[in-house]
Amino acid sequence: MLIGEVARRSGVSARMLRHYESLGLVRPTARTGSGYREYSAEDIRRVFHIESLRSLGLSLREVKRALEDPGFRPSELVDDLIRQTRERIAEETELLTRLRRIGAAEPAGWEDVLRSVALLQALRSKSAGKRQRAALSSAGEVPVPVEALVEAVLRETDPNVAGALRWALARSGDSGLPLLAEGLRSPLAEVRRRAVRSVTEIPGGAATALLREALAHHDTVVRGQAALALGSRGVTDAVPTLVDMVAGQTQDVDAADVLSALACRPAMAEPIATRLVDRLAQATVGVSARRRLTQALGDIPGAITSRALEELSRDEDRGVALTATYLLALRDER
C-alpha cells in the first residue's frame, strides 16, 4: 500500500508518516520499482499502534521506547501519565476558577480584569503582607469575589491576615455563608475553626441561624465559638453550652462573661442561675469545675443566686466556700 492510501485509511497525513519514518518509528517494508514507499499490513498496524499511544498523551519519544524497548514496563508509564493528567486537570481547574471569579467581579474593562487578577494572585502570595493588603483592598472599585475570600480565609494561618480576610468577608454580607457552612463540615479541624470564626463576625439573621446549627457540632471548639457569639447576640440557646464551657475550662472566663451579660436581660437571670446551680449539684462535677461554676454564679443577679451562694459558703470544699463567701460580701456592698 502506497503512502497516499495509508494516509487516507489511517487518518495520518503523508507528512506525518514521513516524520515517523525520519524518527525511526515506522519504516515502509519495501519500495516500488519507481521508488515509492510501500507499506505492508504489519507497517500499517504499527502506525495504528503509534496513534493509539499518542492518544494517551505520550510523546513520540515515549512511543518509540514503548514499541522498541523489550524491558519497557507499561504500568510505570501509565502511572506517570495519570500523575501528569492530574496535574494538568488541577492547573486547568485553577484557571477555570480564576476566570469565573474574574467574571463574577463584572469587570468593565481590561484595567478591571488586570486588577482582579492581581488581587487574586496576591491572596495566594507567600508574603503575609501582600495577602493582608489584598484583603484590605478588596472593598475597592474591583472587589474580590466572595468565594475567593472564603477560600483564602479557610486556608490562612497568619492571624493578622486572617483578621483582615474576615473583615473583608463580613463587609460582603452573608453571601459567603453557604461556603462557610461547607467549611464547618470539613474533616480538618483547623478549617472548621476558621470557618466558625468567620461566621461569628458576619452580622444578620442568616449567620445567627448557622451559628445555632453549630451548637450541635461534634467539634467542641466550634460549639464554643458559636455559643460565645450567640450569647453576645442575646440568643438564649447558647446558655447550656456556655455552662459546659465554664465547667470544662474551655474559654471559661469568656463564657462566664457572656453568661453575665445575658443575665442582665429581662427574665434571663433566673434560668441561667438555675442551670449553674443544677450543674454544681451534679456528683460528677470535679472540685476545680465547682469553683469555676461558683465564680460564674456570682455574676448572675437575683434571689436564686443569693440563696445558692449562701449554701455554698458552707460547702465542704474550702475553695468553693471561700469563693462563695467572698462573692456574697461583694453582693452586699452593691
UniProtKB/TrEMBL annotation:
Family annotation (SUPFAM superfamilies): ARM repeat, Putative DNA-binding domain
Lineage of producing organism: Bacteria, Bacillati, Actinomycetota, Actinomycetes, Kitasatosporales
Pfam families: HEAT_2 (PF13646), MerR_1 (PF13411)
Coiled coil: none
Domain HTH merR-type: 1-69
InterPro entries, alphabetized: ARM-like (IPR011989), ARM-type_fold (IPR016024), DNA-bd_dom_put_sf (IPR009061), MerR-type_HTH_dom (IPR000551), MerR_fam (IPR047057), PBS_lyase_HEAT (IPR004155)
Protein name per Swiss-Prot or TrEMBL: MerR family transcriptional regulator
Keyword entries, A-Z: DNA-binding
Any one Gene Ontology molecular-function term assigned to this protein's record: DNA binding
SMART domains (alphabetical): EZ_HEAT, HTH_MERR
Signal peptide annotation: none
